[in-house]
Amino acid sequence: MFNYNFRWAQAMASLPRMLEGALVTLEVALLSMVIGISIAIVLTLFRLSGSRILSAVAATWVEIARNTPALFQIYMVHFGLGGFGIHLSPYLSLLIGIAFNNAGYLSENFRGALKGIPETQTRSARSLGMTPIAAFRYVVMPQMLRISFLPMTNQMVWAILMTSLGTVVAMNTDLYGVTSDLNARTFRTFELFAIAAMIFYLITKTVTLSARLLAARLFRY
Amino acid sequence: MIEIENVRKSFGALEVLKGIDLTVAKGEVLTVIGGSGSGKSTLLTCINGLEPIDSGRILVDGIEVHARSTNLNQLRRKIGIVFQQYNAFPHLTVLENVMLAQRKVLGRPKAEAEAEAVRQLNHVGLGDKLTVYPSRLSGGQQQRMAIARALAMSPDYMLFDEVTSALDPQLVGEVLDTLRLLASEGMTMICVTHEMKFAREVSDRVAFFHQGVMAEIAPPAQLFEAPESPDLRKFLAATH
């Protein structure tokens, strides 16, 4: 029956290693967001470009990113590209996989945000002599990013949690990977994963709270 | 000088400009009156190339606006336009609104752009609102900011597209005062407006548009006191 003995002290001894893993997790998530947001902006421009080919590229990206499991996406980056002779490290595969997913979701958020910005804003910017790119860069984009700020925060939380999917490409330096390795050696399963879950929780809470503070600082209008 | 030669323009099956001929000289103040859908606003957006035209041509200082070889971004620096919807950039302060295009289009250094912005904002009576965001301004103040924003580009021509139509009645006066000030300073202006009293006061000439045709054009005294076309007489009777 229930004869599991909790050994928290033993599990806690692994905390420093797990915190190192947490840093890797945070790093991958942050980088994946930076890359994801940049690509999402490019995809949004593709959709606005009026070119059918570019729009189709953006639409396909969004469809795949949003309608297939993130786990498959990461798996494909590692083993799918591997089939073409492109061998990426687990770290890079995980990063690219999550960034791919982020870009898809964020681009869709940006599209929604653009609907809330009147066409007359662009018209006004153009009438002041701005090029279409300048009008987007200085007038439309800042408003788009503001409207999308909350969805971007959500996506960041997702990105942090998605790092655990690195396990399918044998990633073992992130929080999940480290915990999993420790577990394989000590079998303190409940304790280790409870601690890991707590760390995940603390990271995501910190991220959402700092995002709220940042928003108050950034958006004074 | 703005020269408009036999300009035609349709939106789908609807022909909104049916061969307009018009010349506006440097320093002239022309107001354009007429009912909704008479084509007067469309003409303004054609002059700065925001709208393409179907035939005819528009020359601004001898440069053909709709020629393929014309650099519209360059041409638009000469022509300021202010719309009915003031289109303040909400994420920028009043000062930043007026600085943005100076910096990014004209490439003016920051200090110079700022000095010019402050000068123009003082000019329109917003010198005490520099660090405020547009959401804190009234409609009239936002519209005056939009005017300052256009003026800061040092344009040779200013086009005003029903700039008081979206304003509460008590705010109309402050914007019209700004336009009067510009007119008195010798700015070349085309104002599409529904404010007859204003048109009568400031204009060198008034043009009456009716169903895509410029039905009548004359100095205000003549146009308002002795309207020739029956459509204009009807229009004036209805607006009084």
Automatic annotation (TrEMBL), chain A:
Residues 22-211 form the ABC transmembrane type-1 domain. Its main location: membrane. The chain crosses the membrane at residues 22-46, 156-173, 193-215. InterPro entries: AA_ABC_transptr_permease_3TM, ArtM/GltK/GlnP/TcyL/YhdX-like, MetI-like, MetI-like_sf. It is found in: Cell inner membrane; Cell membrane. Signal peptide: none annotated. SUPFAM superfamilies: MetI-like. Gene3D superfamilies: MetI-like. Pfam families: BPD_transp_1. Keywords: Amino-acid transport, Cell membrane, Membrane, Transmembrane, Transmembrane helix, Transport. It comes from the Bacteria. It is a multi-pass membrane protein. Belongs to the binding-protein-dependent transport system permease family. HisMQ subfamily. PANTHER family: L-CYSTINE TRANSPORT SYSTEM PERMEASE PROTEIN TCYL, MEMBRANE COMPONENT OF AMINO ACID ABC TRANSPORTER. This is Amino acid ABC transporter permease. It comes from Paracoccus benzoatiresistens.
UniProtKB/TrEMBL annotation, chain B:
InterPro entries: AAA+_ATPase, ABC_ATPase_HisP-typ, ABC_transporter-like_ATP-bd, ABC_transporter-like_CS, MetN_ABC_transporter-like, P-loop_NTPase. CDD domains: ABC_HisP_GlnQ (cd03262). GO terms for molecular function: ATP binding. It comes from Paracoccus benzoatiresistens. It comes from the Bacteria. Belongs to the ABC transporter superfamily. The keyword Nucleotide-binding applies. Its main location: membrane. It is a peripheral membrane protein. It is found in: Cell membrane. SUPFAM superfamilies: P-loop containing nucleoside triphosphate hydrolases. Keywords: Amino-acid transport, ATP-binding, Cell membrane, Membrane, Nucleotide-binding, Transport. This is Amino acid ABC transporter ATP-binding protein. Residues 2-236 form the ABC transporter domain. Pfam families: ABC_tran (PF00005).
